[in-house]
Amino acid sequence: MCEEKILLTGATGYIGQKLSQELLQNGCDVYVIVRKESDISSICQFLPDSHIIVFDEKTGERLDAVAPDVLINLAGKFVSVHNPGDVDALLNSNIIFPAKICEFAYHSGCKKFINAGSYWQNYDNEEYNPVNYYAAAKEAMKKILQYYALSKECKVMTLKIFDSYGDGDPRNKILNILSRLEDGDSIGMTGGEQKMFFCHVDDIVSAFLTAITYLEQMERGTYEEFFLRGEKAVCLKNIVEKFLQVTGKKINIRWGERTYHPKEIFDPDRIGTGKVLPGWKCNITMEDGLKKAFCQKGEL
């Protein structure tokens, strides 16, 4: 059982909601911090109003009263290929908002931080080579958090997430898009040669719980980084074929119609090799995960 007092950003997002509920089920005292414009209807179903902190001029006082043990940063906004109009939102969601929360949390006594990053920060397996502006912003937030490890004697960890999926996922990701199509529908896609590490949301949530425990063995003033990936990457074309097989959907995939991302990661196998979070692994197979996420109960 978890006895920590957890402060979570990004709780209104898909992974954040799942993590919040699992932390509660494991006995954690969970508080979330949201912006004024956030839609909190989903988290109000399982969190009392007193545990939902709206970011304003009194945030510091509220966090002083809460005195969290661990801050988990899942705040972020993803844009695959940005334009100038996206910059403010990308900076505010991925850097400015979480950076302010980190500072408030630190001054309230929090000395342990877990940060969600992306494998898109490591194009071609380089220590830093961002695929897009989003990945660059994630790297900037990582550097800010490293400050708390190197200058403030905190324990800081980044968990870099690959491709995620799961039941009830509203995000505009390929498997969700396919699930909303009807038999006989058609969709254009890239050639499908890019390999991907798909990880079910339940496994990702499990990684964050494992990370909370792992923090205890870390030395103060240290930063560590791990990747949430399986053992073998699979081509997108094979993943889509498996999806169609498992769900029984009859969809016409027009392969090769769309262009690849300017910095498409075709083979992520080398990214994060040997740097998987100790004590954790991706347990849910792709087939079982697809059944769990996209098939009705009676079809399993």
Please characterize this protein's 3D structure.
This protein has eight helices and 13 strands. It is an alpha/beta fold and 300 residues long. It has a single domain (5-170, 197-232, 269-282), classed as NAD(P)-binding Rossmann-like Domain (Rossmann fold, 3-Layer(aba) Sandwich), CATH 3.40.50. It has a seven-stranded parallel beta sheet with strand order 3-2-1-4-5-6-11, sandwiched between helices. Strands 7-10 form a two-stranded parallel ribbon. Helix 2 crosses helix 3, helix 3 (87-107) runs parallel beside helix 4 and helix 7 (236-247) packs across helix 8 (286-294). The two termini are 31 Å apart. 40% of the residues are buried. The mean pLDDT is 96.
Task: Annotate the secondary structure layout.
Blueprint: E1 5-9, H1 14-25, E2 29-34, E3 52-54, H2 59-66, E4 70-73, H3 87-107, E5 112-118, H4 133-152, E6 155-161, E7 163-165, H5 174-180, E8 186-188, E9 195-196, E10 198-200, H6 201-215, E11 222-228, E12 234-235, H7 236-247, E13 252-254, H8 286-294
CATH architectural category: 3-Layer(aba) Sandwich
Structural class: alpha/beta
Q: Which fold does the CATH topology refer to?
A: Rossmann fold
Largest sheet: 7 strands, parallel
Number of domains: 1
Written as H for each helix and E for each strand, in order along the chain, the element string is EHEEHEHEHEEHEEEHEEHEH
Head-to-tail CA distance between termini = 31 Å
The CATH superfamily turns out to be NAD(P)-binding Rossmann-like Domain
Give unreliable regions as ranges. none
What Rg, in angstroms, do the CA atoms define? Answer: 19 Å
| Share of β-strand residues | 15-25%
Report the count of strand segments: 13
